[in-house]
Amino acid sequence: MADPAAPVRVAACGCITPFGDAAATHAALLRGECALRPVPVLGREGGDAVPLALLPGRSLDETTPPDWVAAIASLRRSIPAGDWGSAGLPVFVTGSNFGVGGLYALRRTGNPSFADWSALPTCTERVRTELGWGPDVSIVSHACVSAHLGLLLATRVISEGLADGALVLSFDFLSPFVAGGFHALKILNADFPSPYRVRDSGAIGLGDGAGFAVLGRGSGDWILSGQSVFNEMHHFTANRSDGSGFARCLGTVASAARGRRVWFKGHGTGTLEAGQLEVGAAARAFPEAPIVGWKGSLGHTLGSCGLVELAIAVESVRAGRTPGTIGGAGRAMADTVALESFGNGSFDGVVCASNAFGGAHAAFLLCHA
Amino acid sequence: MADPLTARLKQLIVETLRLEDVAPADIPDAEPLVGGGLSLDSIDALELVVRLEKEFGIKIASSEEARRALANVAALAAYIRERGDPSRLPS
To answer: Of chain A residues 183-202, which have a CB less than 8 A from chain B?
Structure first.
């Protein structure tokens, strides 16, 4: 039996992106490859071409059943065997959209079968059945910090002795509904994203992504410490312009990272104001840390980004090399932004940060157990 | 006499955003639309941009461009005169 005083560890983690699994994604990022392609924002109905990173063979248009189910099922092969969904090994399913595109498809087509996957509980129940889990499945959805929240709740459940371990799964797959929403806000537009670069106008890309982490006390090479979540409750789409939300969230992690040499995996979607605020807050909290962001290649995988990028960060440490910030040309917002890949052998921690609509911020320190 | 485009824009703002206590004539030409006396926010701006694109055939490319276009009613009118479909401008 695991020592109840032992810290919660990450026993396994993984992800799927258009490049493949975490190792393939890490390798592609090191090569500087971009998964984003111009795709009509409304799929078969056309519209402006915007940068999207879809899984190979997947269409932006909705299908019933969704064509992303196979991608989630493929993750199962990487998840250690266990009685997932039992009281001792609960599952936390996180994401920000949960097949909401199906609701739009229902309205567009009138086909009632789209409704089967479209609501948060029904979608999760379908995934639970598909992956053969028991009933102890919790749903966590808080925009683009959803995965971080799932990790935090799973850690607490284990820390409090309520479970032996936990599986956190996160996924978000694009649809015309989701792409159209970001396009209406004008932050998803014809330009490709250039995270942390000085530009006249900002642009993001969106990407398909799914990831998981298995947490427990018994074994695992990694620890997540200083897990921090802070919500400014400022506005639907905006952060406070003084950057105080970023600073508040990162302060907790900075305390956990004291004495360590860290690099910083930022959120970095490509929006100008948030990018500048994040770079500034990161530079103040971790003055020596190189900052990288990978959404210039993968696009923003929305609610899943925390777990997708955790898996890539782990792969980076394993491989000894961190991919640089991909996307665009021109001056970086700060000297601390690493545009090129770098060896990470002399570092002993990674700060992984995400933020979300509503001024929600989340971060943790990833380090060897 | 009020400029027809400016008057139409003020009417659109009131209608689109359902500003119950504001008459079109109450909106000054030079007052900031977002963060000014009308207290519009980015969601209001989103609704307004969608309506403006449909009515005047404009295409706003980015959030920064939207912010510049929506600086105030006068800036918005100038933007639409420059980029809009001339056949859709009120005369």
So the answer is: 184-187, 189-191, 200-202
